[in-house]
Amino acid sequence: MQGKKRGEEKAIHPKLQHLIRESLSQVEGKDQTILKQVLEQIDRARFCPSNDPNVVYGTAPCPLTRKGVVEGKGATLSALGIHVIALQLIMARWKELRRKYGWTPFRDTRVLDVGSGSGYLCIALSHLMATMAEGGEKRKGSSVWHRVHS
Asked: Residue 48 is part of which domain span?
């Protein structure tokens, strides 16, 4: 997938738009606006190996498969609703830190997502930090996934 050129809007798959609307139905106010902005920047098709839009943009977890073999003993790209809950909890913590200590996601903030399967949540966190931070600078994220062999 090629990156968008400056000033060019990236088309969002209609099924992704529907999934985002459905997943954010319980989120209110500014949080919904922020999360919608974050989620629209990330196409789940880049993280789910299925070519079936009903699987990629469905409400169920998407199996992380490669050549018919399930990686990580049943690892999945979690349903978008689960990612929304995780992002909401992180936003709440950041708001608490901002209120208590005046902290904001700053220029050198990093994200480490340990145990990531596809890396989707790590990318979402990076976009969330950029969206919540003043100036919207890009943030860096790293994900670590360790596959246990038995």
From this structure: 14-144
